[in-house]
Amino acid sequence: MGHRLFMLDVPENVPIAGVARHLPDVRVGRLGPYFVIESDAPLSIDRRATGVRHAVWYSFVAGLDGWRIAQWDKDALRTEER
């Protein structure tokens, strides 16, 4: 897998990791205190599917490797190639 999104491994972010686990060709693992979401293809995570509040949604990304954010609004987070 090529590209990674990092988010802190805290209870508030568990629902986001859970939704990401069910996306096609995506692997969710851990590295130190972070969840690592990995994929060769860009991601699209639906906020409503995660059930998290806006404050959690707009603060969950800790870092990116190989992607940039194309969309991050009240509906979804979508990445694209850098």
What would your notes on this structure say?
This protein has 82 residues and is of the alpha+beta class. It has three helices and seven strands. It has a single domain, classed as Monooxygenase component MmoB/DmpM (Phenol Hydroxylase P2 Protein, Alpha-Beta Complex), CATH 3.90.56. Helix content is 20%, strand content 43%. The chain is globular. The model has no long low-confidence stretch (mean pLDDT 96).
Offer a concise description of the structure.
The protein is α+β, with helices and mostly antiparallel strands. 20% of the residues lie in helices and 43% in strands.
Set out the fold topology.
Layout (H helix, E strand, L loop, with lengths): L2 E6 L5 H8 L5 E5 L2 E6 L4 E3 H4 L3 H4 L5 E3 L1 E6 L3 E6 L1
Antiparallel strand pairs: 1-3, 1-5, 2-3, 4-7, 6-7
Task: Name its key features.
alpha+beta; Phenol Hydroxylase P2 Protein; four-stranded antiparallel β-sheet; three-stranded antiparallel β-sheet
